[in-house]
Amino acid sequence: MVFRSTDILGHIGGDEFLVLMKDIKTPDIVQERCNQLRDFLRKSYDHGEETVQVSASIGIALAPTDGQDFQTLFSHADAALYQSKRMGKDRQTLYASGFVEKREKVVEESESRQDLQKLLEDPKHYILDMAFNSKNTELAVQILLEIFAKYFRVHRAYVFWHVDGPYWPRALFEYAMGDHKKASVAHDAPVRRQIRKRYRTTKYGRFTECIDTSRLASQMARKEFQRRQICAYLECAVMDVDKFIGCVG
Fold it and tell me: How many domains does the chain have?
């Protein structure tokens, strides 16, 4: 374990976390813990012909020299974090006076809000534009699933490809909020059967939805969804002429 049981760990939002370490005798201990954490998080993943590098950037503020209240320490640690990013990432930085506080973060958040607005105003154009301009389509789809899940506050977003029969999907892409199980685990064969048989053809395509699975007429269906903690679902079929080959949900 990198941190002690007395340390306080919190999720700020997105990919940002905060750690409060009390009763630290020297700054060297904080630096040592940060080095251990970065070593633990530093990974490489292969995506086809590309290799994706994952690392962590850390900002450090010390009390009482960098502040004596939460808001000041948080603001200074945030400024140190963005200094680490400016210096090339995968490093930790101690706060120093003169660091630009949150300016880059504000720009990033503004750009994120603009992207979200474009997505909501014209989702088809946004998705096609993002996929067209992306050098990594898989990564673009993964990001879009996360955007949808977070904005609509759903636990899972996924793209399934059905193989080896109608009820055995393979998750091409999926995003699970927090510590919720992935769709590839929660949506096993019994659930897929229940969802598939409730598809209906509309003028927009084939869809199935349920806003409250506890109200389904079938007791067996209610039990299957309850066992996997699926309270509601919405899916759109991917068709090859008249053949069901996958879904987005």
Answer: 2
CATH of the domain at 40: 3.30.70.270
Tens-digit pLDDT profile for residues 95-115: 988 776 554 554 555 555 566
Greatest mean pLDDT among 14-23, 43-52, 144-153, 164-173 lies in 14-23
Which residues span the domain enclosing 14?
A: 8-101
Judge contact between 56 and 88, C-beta under 8 A: no
Q: Which of 101, 136, 157 is the last residue of a domain?
A: 101
pTM over 0.85: no
Distance CA 210, CA 217 (A): 12
